[in-house]
Amino acid sequence: MKEFLQIRRDRVTLGMVAVLPMVQMMLFGFAINNDPKHLKTIVLAHDQSEFSRSLVAGMRNTGYFDVRGGMFAEGEAADMLKRGDVQFVVSVPTDFSKKLVRNEKPEILVEADATDPAATGNAIAALNTLVQTVFDKDFNGVLSKLPAQAPFSARVHKLYNPSGIAQYNTIPGLMGVILSMTMVMMTSLAITRERERGTIENILSSPATPIEVISGKIVPYVLIGILQCTAILLAAHYLFRIPFEGNLLTVYCLTILLIMANLMVGITISSVARNQLQAMQMTFFYFLPSVLLSGFMFPFMGMPRWAQVIGNGLPLTYFNRAIRGVLLKGNGWYEMWPGASALVVFGVIVMGIGLFSYKNTLD
Q: How far does CA 36 lie from the centroid of its chain?
């Protein structure tokens, strides 16, 4: 009876018991999808003909390709593929129609961002099937004598991960997951531990300002995070043979931004929670969506729009995109500044919430 009464009085625990199963069911039931569709695609149609238009229409009809309108230069398309703004670039040669009607089996070039093999694998398979049937309605009259099967071919270039090795995608993301879990978990107990030990009064009565107290709490963990990052990078390079295409200094700068963002989350949780149990529950409530909705375990583009909105509010989402771009694509600050700036904005906002919560503790 005592335990029942104690649980009933702990509203945070009751809330977690009621909310967490629903959150897990919503995430696993609706948000997780291993067959992403409507992948952003650019078509460089150097041959403006009815056949190229039929090809684009056929790609749209598969549901896997979201062909963007407008005219793009080859260099611009390559930059968008490198930044991750699009997943496919399809190039149709200038003599495509001429070779097609002559039964010379022309080729189109399909460049795919293969950093995450699971995100583009089904779309590539659908494209290979499309080659067989896309021109069925166009081959009439004189053209009906042409062979119906495979009138052209698609040469697929899987960029950045041509072998489709899953570790190339998961290991860089795993670094962000480990840092998020350890940084948030350790700092979420920082102030609640002081409160339970009865030493919080000494800190509150000291002349230290809130920003000084919070800085003192997070500085040791910044160093721990850097050591963790170094250990993971060494294991990634020497054990898993992950290619390092980018600058190592850029990797560390990006990692420090993620560490600071997660430390601010942990300090905010620590300021709000009344005890260490509540702090651990809040940490788990934050960590679960970060793992599932950040694109670490499941393709981000396969999630519904509402899940992508939640994922875009999490720092791990931006870190995963940026760190994979640096390590696998050799991206610099120009390509990764959207992710880096999002981490900075997130950290500043959460730091403001943490300072406000700590001032309430003072009152």
A: 14
87 Cβ neighbours under 8 A, 6+ residues apart: 39, 40, 41, 81, 112, 113, 119, 120, 123, 301
pLDDT in tens, 297-351: 888 888 888 888 989 999 999 999 999 999 999 888 888 888 899 999 998 898 8
The superfamily CATH assigns to domain 39-159 is abc type-2 transporter like domain (3.40.1710.10)
Q: Indicate whether this model's pTM tops 0.85.
A: no
How far is the C-alpha of 177 from the C-alpha of 286, rounded, in Å?
A: 12
Helix/strand/coil for 246: coil
CB atoms closer than 10 angstroms to residue 33: 14
At 217, which amino acid appears? K
CATH 3.40.1710.10 domain locations along the chain: 39-159
CB-based contact 268:350 (threshold 8 Å): yes
The residue among 330, 347, 301, 341 whose CA lies nearest residue 38 is 301
The tens digit of pLDDT for each residue in 136-182 reads 776 665 555 555 567 888 899 999 988 888 888 888 889 999 999 88
